[in-house]
Amino acid sequence: MNTVKTLLGGVALTVLSGAAFAEDQDLLVFDYSGFEDPAFHAKYIEKHGDTPSFAFFGEEDEALQKLVSGFKADVSHVCAGSVKKWEESGIIEPWDTSKITDYAKLDSNLLGSDVAADSAYFIPTDFGSTAIAYNTEEVPAEDVASLQVFKDPKYAGRMTLPDNVDDAYALAYLATGTTDWTTATDEQFEAASNWLREVHPNLRTYWTDPAELSQLMATGEVLISWAWNETYPTLVDEGFPVGFQREAEEGSSLWLCGYVNLKDGPGSEDKAYDYLNGFLDVSNAEVLMDAGYGISNSEGLSSLGLEALEAGGLEPIDAPILAQLPMSVELREKQSEEFEKIKAGF
Fold it and tell me: Where is the signal peptide, in residue numbers (predicted)?
C-alpha cells in the first residue's frame, strides 16, 4: 500500500471499485485506459445506477485522428497541450459553464484566460507536477537546487527526461527563464530548444512511462530524472532513497488534463454534464490522489491536508510554476518537430 493510500484510506471507494456495474449506453467516454475505474465515477453511479460506457486510446493524436475519421463519442479526456488542435479540427464544442456545479471552485491557476467566459472548450479535471526526482544517497540536495543539473557532466549518462514533448519543453522553458509558454516568442522557443540540445548527450535515455522510470532509478542506472509526481510515492513505498525537488531555482511545472465536449455525440448531453460534475465533485479528491492525480477543484484538493499533498508531490511551493496550459497549434507542432530532431541527435 503506497503512502498516499495509507494517508487517505477510502474503504468505501475500495468497495465501490470492486463492485460490478452495467455500462450506461447513453454516454460514451473516450479516454485513457484506467479512467473507467468505477471509483472515479461514484456520483454518476449514485445518480444513474451504472457507469458510463468507455472506449480507449493510447495517445491524443491517435484519438484525434479516430474522431476526425468519424468515430463518435460524447466526451473525451485530453491534456491541455492538445486542446487548440482539437478545437481547430472542429470536433469539439464549448461546455456551458453554468451547468458545471463546481466551476467556481476550479483552481484559477489551471484555467487559463481563454476559459474565463461563460463557455469553455476545455475543463481541467486532473493534474500533476513534474520536477526533479533524484537518488538522495548519491546526489546531494545542492546539486538539484537548479535545473541546470541536467547539464552537469558529473551525471552524464545517469540522467533521463520524459519522451514527451510537453514535459520536455516545460523543463526547457523553465531552465531558460520562461514560465508561460502560451506567450512564448520565437526567441524563447529557440532558447528552450538549444537547451534541450545541450542536455541530450548527458541522457541515459528518454523514459516512456512511470514504470520504466521507477525501474531505471531503482536499479541505479539513473540518478536524476525530470519526473511526474506519481514516481515519488511509488519509490518511497519501495523503500528507495528518493527526493522530489519542486523548488529548484527556476521552478517546476504542472501538467493538466480535462474533458472536452464532442460535437454530435450519440448519447445524452445531460449525462455528459453529470459525468463531468461527478468527476469534479469534492468527494472525488481522495480517489484521484490515491491514483496519483490532483483534482482541479481547489476545495477538494485542500480537503486532503498538507501531509497527503506532500506525500503525493503536490504541496504548495515557493518557486516559479509553468502551468502546461493550452498553446497554439503552430507552437506545439514546432516543438514536436524540433523534439524529434533533438532526440535523433540533430
Answer: 1-22
HSE, side-chain direction, 13 A CA sphere, residue 303: 17
Provide the mean pLDDT of the chain.
Answer: 90
In the numeric block, which cell numbers belong to residue 176? Answer: 531558460
Domains of the chain: 3-127+255-311 (3.40.190.10), 129-253+325-343 (3.40.190.10)
Phi and psi, residue 191, nearest 5°: -65, -45
200: exposed, middle or buried (C-beta count within 10 Å: 0-12, 13-18, 19+)?
A: middle
Number of C-alpha atoms within 13 angstroms, CB side, residue 48? 25
**Within 10 Å of residue 11's Cβ, how many Cβ atoms?**
7
Assigned C-alpha cell, 139: 546526489
Q: Which single residue is written with the C-alpha cell 479516430?
A: 66
What does each C-alpha distance from 330 to 63, 81, 85, 210, 302 come to in angstroms?
19, 11, 9, 29, 36
* pLDDT(49) > 60: yes
- Exposure on the CB side of residue 73, measured as CA atoms within 13 A: 23
Q: What does the alpha-carbon distance between residue 184 and residue 325 come to, in Å, rounded to a whole number? A: 12
Contacts of 198 (CB under 8 A, 6+ apart): 151
Cell 528518454 sits on residue: 206
Q: Could you say which DSSP state residue 114 is in?
A: G
pTM value is 0.83
| DSSP-based three-state secondary structure for 312 | coil
Cα–Cα distance between 153 and 150 in angstroms, integer?
8
**Average pLDDT, integer, range 250-259:** 94
Q: What is the pLDDT of residues 163-178, one digit of tens each?
A: 999 999 999 999 999 9
**268 falls in which pLDDT band (50, 70, 90)?**
very high
* Nine-digit cell string for 1: 500500500
DSSP class of 145? S
